[in-house]
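REQUEST FORM: STRUCTURE PREDICTION
Request ID: SP-0412
Submitted by: Lab K.M.
Chain count: 1
Length (residues): 276
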Amino acid sequence: MEKTALASRKTSQRIRVIVQILFFTLIALTALNGYLETIGISIPLISLASLHALCPFGGVVTIYSLVTTGTFVQKIHASSIVLLGLVGIFSILFGPVFCSWLCPLGSLQEWLGKLGSKIFKKRYNHFLHPKLENILKWFRYLVLVWVIYVTAQSGQLLFATVDPYYALFNFWSGEVAIQAIVILGLTLLGSLFVERPWCRFACPLGALLSLTNLVRIFRIRREPSTCISCKKCDNACPMKIKVSGSSIVRDLSCNSCMRCTSDNVCPVPDTVEMKH
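STATUS: Completed
RESULT:
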């Protein structure tokens, strides 16, 4: 029985990694294919859509323009609105699963974080003072407001000039602004010290999706009657949420990675789960 349970846990841990790898590969190949098309080459069976068309955040920044003028922000495609709707539905159901399961930049930060944890061991993700972290985690909401405002005023996707996601998959094309490459470099370097620094402190899409933690239908729940207060759920949480301190996790930082659950780290079955 113990071997079966362990195998089940290993399987559940691998599912998210497989999804992350598949989506990262898809976006990378799509970006590469878009570039190759300019020189008369293409990858069979891979979409020629631009990164902006495949990013749900494009749907956020173009809504104002679409409502007021009936046109999309420059470089934004209708598919971004569709993707935003789909991501929104899943977020209302399960929280910000896009961030922890699908976002390729988030996945890359997480993978680099695993390297950082091997280098720095217990110091990893503990370099910043807790008070500083509590201040920094609100910065992404300011970024969200700024991005929507400047895009609405200009009618152009100015965020692309500082977007590390866009830089990650276009740095070879010559279309990426130097500041975006610098921010990408700092993000990847910071990932060796802090878990998902861009996601936690600066990502405007993550800020928007995090608000669904207030209304999501399926939540991370802890059963106090079976909890043994081992704090393993707290230690496993990359966002440093005190899962053991409440029966329902409502923290805006939760990205539904499910590392804290009984399927992954909690030693007591059915104690920490995502459920209605």
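NOTES: Residues 2-37 form the longest helix (36 residues).
Reviewed by: T.R.
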